[in-house]
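So, read this over?
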Amino acid sequence: MVSEESSKKFAVSLVKKLLQNYSSFFDKKNAVLNSDGRRVLNDIIRECLKIFPEKHELCKNARREPTLKNIRKLAELFLPPPDVDELIHEGVSASWIKKRKIRRKK
């Protein structure tokens, strides 16, 4: 059986992947997960429920409405809020910089 610690490490790595790659996993207009982001979210939720079965309602809400706000609540189960803020800032900033570079090339 997989240990709780390894489940948490895996979930943390998935949360970081999701938040740091904002442009890859979130819709540009609505800040909602796209299909690739939903796949990662499902993996996060699976690990979350192994560790925190009492957080079923939070996971259900995140799956139903995969907004940045709900993903943030889920991420705060695994990481402290300042770290989550930093990851979101990195991801959104990288997305914005990438978009600016593409526009300049045209």
